[in-house]
């Protein structure tokens, strides 16, 4: 049986891993799962790395599709997740009910965790832009605990290295010891859709399509929702 190589952004990792394992058992195929930030994987694909299925943010998939890197008709939205605020389990819950309240919570915190925008993560890039919009980027960057991926942000909060943090809710939920306070409030609300496409260079297009169908099986919708992702299928 062939091995199917998947390049995937971390925001959908929990579901790609869970459904991927079930696909392996049902089909007899082996999956080579590779997770990283959407930006870093975009660069790898652009630089010619071989893959069968690519799962990145909708904007990046759209960008790469213009270069003919995907099988026509294979681009499929998987799910949408929102940026949430998280704290360590058992710690005081900050007021994030309004943009101003959230701004004050960030300023009062001793340490703030989020994804390093230089690592290419969609969540980190959006959060950095939000800090600029609020006029507190300099103050927060002085006490930032940066992670290369959202999973590292969640871990830093669980381990007590950061008092408060923000990343996609789907990346917080798998981490024990962390609770989601809620999504970013009001006009600060941000979300991102993650999209899959079969690489034009794939030699296992039919198997990659079967995997894509497994990921978007309507019977899995409740599981996507429980994982912090609003299914798009």
Describe this structure in words.
The structure is a single chain. The chain folds into two domains: 3-79 and 193-231, D-Maltodextrin-Binding Protein, domain 2, CATH 3.40.190; 82-188, 3-Layer(aba) Sandwich (D-Maltodextrin-Binding Protein, domain 2). The chain contains ten helices and ten strands. The protein has helices spanning 13-27, 38-46, 58-65, 99-108, 122-134, 137-141, 150-158, 169-172, 205-215, 221-226; strands at 3-9, 30-36, 53-57, 76-88, 112-115, 144-147, 164-168, 178-183, 191-198, 230-231. Helix 1 links the parallel strand 1 and strand 2 (30-36). The longest helix is centred in the first third of the chain and has 15 residues, at 13-27.
What's the layout of helices and strands?
Elements: E1 3-9, H1 13-27, E2 30-36, H2 38-46, E3 53-57, H3 58-65, E4 76-88, H4 99-108, E5 112-115, H5 122-134, H6 137-141, E6 144-147, H7 150-158, E7 164-168, H8 169-172, E8 178-183, E9 191-198, H9 205-215, H10 221-226, E10 230-231
Parallel strand pairs: 1-2, 1-3, 5-6, 5-7
Antiparallel strand pairs: 3-9, 4-7, 4-8, 4-9, 4-10
Which characteristics define this entry?
233 residues, alpha/beta, D-Maltodextrin-Binding Protein, domain 2, 2 domains, 10-stranded mixed sheet, 10 helices
Total number of beta strands: 10
Low-confidence stretches: none
CATH class identity of the largest domain = Alpha Beta
* Major pleated sheet: 10 strands, mixed
CATH topology of the largest domain: D-Maltodextrin-Binding Protein, domain 2
H/E element string? EHEHEHEHEHHEHEHEEHHE
The 3D shape can be described as: elongated
> Number of DSSP helices?
10
Second-tier CATH architecture of the largest domain? 3-Layer(aba) Sandwich
Number of domains: 2
What's the overall average pLDDT, rounded? 97
The percentage helix is: 25-40%
Radius of gyration using CA atoms only = 18 Å
Instruction: Indicate the proportion of strand residues.
Output: 25-35%
The chain-level structural class is alpha/beta
How far the N terminus sits from the C terminus, by CA atoms, comes to 28 Å
CATH superfamily label of the largest domain? Periplasmic binding protein-like II
